[in-house]
Amino acid sequence: MSNPEARPDEIVCTGADAPSVEIMVPREVPLGGPRAMTVRRTLPQRERSLIGAWCFLDHYGPDPVAESGGMSVAPHPHTGLQTVSWLFEGEIEHRDSAGHHAMVLPGEVNLMTAGRGISHSEVSTGATTTLHGAQLWVALPDASRDADPGFEHYVPEQLVSDGWQARVFIGSMLGHTSPVSTYTPLLGAELSLEPGVILPLEVDPSFEHGILVDQGSVTVDGLTAKPADLAYVPPGDGLIALVAGDDGARVLLLGGTPFGESIVMWWNFVGRTHEEVVGYREEWQAQITRDGVVVPDSTEVADGRFGVVADDHLRPIPAPELPNARLRERR
């Protein structure tokens, strides 16, 4: 998914520790168009930019596609990150410039590695009547951020026990390990709890965690998170106890070791310096413009760092204007 903001902030992410559990509330961001699909964004925020290497979190739906227009995100670029797509309902078609064409389906994870540069599109299919899911980004560490672009698809086993169900799509938990490749230690899982259930989870004490509530409510260490809230749990404890509310709960549990590096994130780029981000933007604009005008069809995009998304005829998304100031670290 692209960051659709016309004037996206420059964000320097440091992943600072917190002394206790926090409840982070989202802000609404329209994806654009006359019937703009709206997403709820909980990462990044000014107070906290990363949870482990997780650096971006959009939660959307359930949206009736007939009213919202669904998802139609034309080809756009990425660098220095991985995208993780997770659906609760609906179907999205993915195409990228590394030659991958796949469907995003409920309960199945699609992970795209941008590495040194990739472009892709995401469009909800005609069979989709309701769209509901989450789009997440993972920052790549400096040693791996110029890796080759790639794509992985995985269908995690549904784990079932007394009063709860789980799917572990990244990392290890509940005796299950996902084969999906990451460049830093990470965890990603969907958990569904019946009303009033208390689920103690053994977790890596070196991880910080985020618990995104999709449905119902969940209480963590005495604090209650409602739909679209993100509960942050700092490192240090090897046990997280989730207490479901009266209507039960469905959550995404995300985790990872504190990232330990500062990153500059602007629009769809993750870099380390002002010059890098400016360069990425210039390269993308050079690929998609002719005589200063954005090409009308993605098949007319010139080859370059971000490649060409094959068989996609949407007009590529131009980069926003940079702010009238040098992009700088704000620790």
From TrEMBL:
Pfam families (alphabetical): Pirin (PF02678), Pirin_C (PF05726)
Span of domain Pirin N-terminal: 38-138
InterPro entries: Pirin, Pirin_C_dom, Pirin_N_dom, RmlC-like_jellyroll, RmlC_Cupin_sf
Segments forming domain Pirin C-terminal: 190-286
Segment forming the signal sequence: none
Family affiliation: Belongs to the pirin family.
Protein name (database record): Pirin family protein
Organism expressing this protein natively: Nocardioides bizhenqiangii
